[in-house]
Design goal:
By secondary structure, the protein is α/β, with parallel strands linked by helices. Helix content is 49%, strand content 15%. The chain has 10 helices and 8 strands. Strands 3-2-1-4-5-6-7-8 form an 8-stranded mixed beta sheet, sandwiched between helices. Strand 7, helix 6 and strand 8 form a beta-alpha-beta unit. Helix 7 packs across helix 8 and helix 7 packs across helix 10. The chain is elongated.
């Protein structure tokens, strides 16, 4: 399978489930590439979709019954199970590729394998960027994917080409590998940012570059929804251990400082 950035993917009929900020973000590039889009969501985005040239369905039955090659699940982590389980999948006209773009991977993989029809293909993905980091294009930004159950190689390859043709760094790894790595990186990043927000850190007249970076991290992380952060913890089985590791590390650092303080104070007493 080629994911070369040298050519555009063939025109696809893509349906987006969950047309919030991230769904809209992906849709703009897909439309730019010439793909035909439909969307459905709990909120009414019919006016926005009309402006973007997207067919918006309030009725999920009608959405599933339309002619779609690929269904992209852009729900929140916390709502995925409810959304997918409530979809009338018998309305699907033909075997369809289901793609999720959640920030955790074992959870959607297990759910989709359990509830989707046997003839449905499954591609689990995580674009490691969003509307802020990807606002000036996707070149050199990481796109992770796991071909969980793929029979229609052409459709899967054409979907991946959407991202490869934009210059993404295409990384194929298992859902388990992803969640292990994400717990050590994305979850810890969010946790540090949320912790700094609880401390209410603010810029000072004598900020170092390092502290400026921490303030920026805090502002970026609190700009993300609490649902996203909660989902990174609740639905990634590796996150709990990383949170414990962080707590233990903070305790060890404090222990080291207290020990040094006691040593210094003891030396001062001896000298006096």
């Amino acid at each position: 399978m080629s994911t070369s950035s040298s050519s555009q993917s063939q025109s696809l009929k893509i349906g987006i489930v969950g047309f919030g900020t991230f769904g809209q973000f992906l849709a703009k590039t897909m439309i730019k590439q010439g793909h035909t889009l439909a969307a459905t969501s709990r909120s009414d985005y019919s006016d926005l979709c009309l402006q973007m040239g997207i067919h918006f369905f309030r009725d999920v039955n009608a959405f599933l019954a339309t002619d779609i090659d690929i269904i992209v699940l852009c729900t929140s982590i916390l709502s995925l199970s409810e959304v997918v389980s409530s979809m009338p999948l018998t309305s699907l006209k033909r075997p369809t590729l289901f793609v999720d773009v959640l920030s955790v991977k074992e959870h959607p993989r297990n759910l989709l394998l359990r509830v989707l029809p046997e003839d449905a293909d499954i591609l689990c993905t995580h674009p490691m960027f969003g509307p802020v980091t990807g606002k000036n294009g996707w070149r050199d930004l990481t796109f992770m994917y796991d071909r969980v159950r793929i029979r229609d190689e052409a459709t899967c390859s054409n979907f991946l080409q959407i991202f490869a043709s934009e210059g993404c760094k295409m990384v194929q790894m298992s859902c388990e590998e992803h969640d292990k790595a994400a717990a050590k990186s994305q979850f810890i990043t969010h946790t540090i940012g949320r912790t700094l927000a609880e401390m209410d850190i603010k810029s000072t007249p004598i900020d170092t570059k390092g502290f400026e970076a921490l303030v920026k991290l805090k502002e970026t992380m609190v700009g993300n929804s609490l649902d996203l952060y909660s989902g990174l913890f609740v639905y990634n089985r590796f996150a709990r251990q990383e949170l414990e590791n962080l707590e233990h590390a903070l305790y060890k650092v404090k222990e080291m400082l207290v020990q040094r303080m006691n040593e210094e104070q003891g030396q001062e007493r001896n000298e006096s």
